[in-house]
Amino acid sequence: MNGDPLCSKLQRIEESQRSAQRIDFTVMALEQRAHTLALEFLKVSSQFRLGELPTEMPHLKTINLSEDAKFNLNVAIQNIQSIDLDAFKQLQNYLPKLESLKKDIRQTLTSGGRVFLCGCGATGRLSLALETIWRYQHRDVFSDRIVSFMAGGDVALIQSIEKFEDFPEYGERQLKDLGFDKNDLLVSCSEGGETPFVIGATVAASRISERAPYFLYCNPDDILSRTAERSKRIIEDPLIRKINLTVGPMALTGSTRMQATTILMYAVGLCLWFYDAHFADLKNELQRVIDFLEKNNFDFLKPFIETESELYSNNEYLFYEADGDLGISILTDTTERSPTFSLYPFENQNDKIKNPSLSYLLFSREPDSASAWEKLLGRKPRTFHWREVTDETNYDRLVGFDFSRKIEQLRLKYLKAAHAHFKIQFEAKTNSFLFQLKGVTHSLYLKDLNFLSAHLILKICLNNLSTLVMGRLGRYESNLMTWVRASNNKLVDRAVRYAALMLERKGVVVSYEDLVFACFRNAEKLPKDQSLVLSLVGEFAKVPGSFS
User: Fold this and answer.
1) Which of 257, 303, 314, 487 is most buried, most CB within 10 Å of its CB?
2) What is the block-wise mean pLDDT of the chain (548 residues), using blocks of 10 residues?
3) Residue 328 to residue 333: CA distance in whole angstroms
4) CA distance linking residue 397 with residue 391, whole number of Å
C-alpha cells in the first residue's frame, strides 16, 4: 500500500494541508498576541504620550542631519558639537542646584554611608559608568562606597531587558536586594523625568533612608506634571529632592543618550568627584570643559566616521579595542546603538542562533569573559535571577557576552568575515586619547581636564561619531529616530509619533490607535534589524486619503 503512487500523493496533500493549518494557527496566534498587547498599551498610553517634552522634540540645528551626515560631514560634526557645548553652558546656570547634592554626598560618605546611583537605559549606563570611573580613581576604603544599578542589572549594560523599565516595583525590589538602608543616599537619574523603574526606586528610598533621595531629570516641571501623573507625584513629593536640568531637544530627536544623559552624568559626577573639595573647584572644572569645547573642534572624527561606515557598507565588522580605563564609556556608546538604530546587540555566545552585531567590544588582554567583566566594571558583576520575571538578568547570561580576547576566534568561526580594529587608548603621561582605525590616527590632548571630564569628552566624541556613521547608513531621516526599537511603552509611543509625523508630511492622517495596533502587529513579524517606523509609514502611505 505504501508503494501506491496515489496513496503517496494523498499523504503529501494531507501533510501539506496540516502544515498550512499549523502556519495559519501560528499567524493567528501572533496576531491575537499583538492585538492583546496593543489593547494593554492603549489602556495606559495617556501616561506615555510624551511628544510635548522638550527631550522628545526635533532640534532646529539638525533638521538636515541625515543629509549632512552623507554630504556635509564637517557641518554635521560641528552642529552636534555646538549642541553639546550649549548643554554644558546651560549646566553652568544649574550649578547652585548642585550644592546641596554635593554636601549630602560628603556627609553620607564621611559618616560611613553609601551613595547609590540609579537609572534606566542610558541613565542606567551613566550610573554604572560613574561607579566605574570612581573605582579607577579611589582604590581605597571609599571604592565600595558608590553602588550603581540599572533596570535589569549589569546584563542590561549590553542588552535591554524587555519592558523592565515600565515597572516601578522592579526599581524598589532591586534597590532593596542591594541592601539599601537608612544611612545610604540614593541619586536617581531619569533623562525624561518619567521612567517608572527609576521613580519606583526613588520613592522606596524616601521611605527607607533617613537621607532624602535626589531625582534628576531634563524636562520642565509644568510640562512633565501635565504629561505623566507619576512625574507629577514625584515632583510634588516633599520627601524627595528634585534637580531639574532641562537642556532642550537632542541633536537626534528623542536620543536622550546624547545631551540629556551627558549633562546628568556630568552633574552627578562633579558632585562625586569634588565631594570633599571647595565648590569653586567644581565650577572651575566645568569651565575647563567649556573652554576645551570652544577651542577644539571635532573635525578629526571625519575620517573615522567615513572609514567605519564604509566598513559596514562592505559587509565587514569592527572590534572596538580598549583597556579597562576607557572600556565602560566605549561599551556604553556601542551598545546604545542597538535600540537607537535597530541594530542587533552584541550576540551572546550561549545562544544557538547568533545574529551578529556590527561591532563588538574587545579587551585583548583579558583571558576570559569573567575577567573581562571585572576589568570593565572594576568589581564583580551584579546580577540576579527573578524566576517569575525573566531569565535574562542572571550571571550565566552576562558572561555569555564575552569581550575577552576569545571573542576574536569565536566570531571568526560563525562570521567568517573581516574585522577591523578601532583602538582607543588613554595616554596618562600626556593626558590624551589615541584613536586608531585602519591607518587613520589622531591624538586628542585633554590639557588639564581631570579623568571624569576626559570620560565626558570621550562620550560626546563617540556619540557624535556613532550618530553620523548611522546617518551615512540611512538609519534616520532628517533628525528623526526612524529606526528606534519599541522595547518599552515610551518607545512604542515614540515610534507611533514619528510614523504619524512622516505620514502627515505625505498628506496621510492616521489615528493614534490605528498606528498602535499596526505597531504591535508589525513588531511581531519584523526582524529586529529593520525599521518599525518605516514599516508603519509604508503600510499606510500605500492608500491615498486619510484614516481615522
Assistant:
1) 257
2) 53 54 56 90 91 94 98 98 98 97 97 97 97 89 92 94 89 98 98 96 98 98 94 97 97 96 98 95 97 97 98 96 94 95 95 95 97 97 94 96 97 91 96 97 97 98 98 95 88 93 92 94 87 93 52
3) 9
4) 8
DSSP, collapsed to helix, strand or coil, labels residue 445 as strand
- Same domain? 125 vs 157: yes
Picking from 425, 441, 472, the residue at the C-terminal end of a domain is 472
d(C-alpha 321, C-alpha 319), whole Å: 6
Domain count for the chain, please give it: 2
- Cα pseudo-dihedral 119, 125, 131, 133, rounded to 10: -150
Q: Which domain holds residue 321?
A: 61-378+390-472
Provide the residue type at 150 as one letter: M
Q: Which residues have a catalytic role annotated?
A: 131, 165
Cell of 500: 504619524
Q: For residue 58, what is its C-alpha cell?
A: 526635533
Residues listed for the chain: 548
User: H or E element: which one contains 360?
Assistant: strand 359-362
What secondary structure letter does DSSP report for 179? T
Query: Can you give the pLDDT at residue 22?
Result: 47
Sign of CA dihedral 269, 274, 278, 280: negative
Nearest residue to 152 via CA among 123, 130, 179: 123
Q: Where are the alpha helices (DSSP H) in 178-220?
A: 196-208
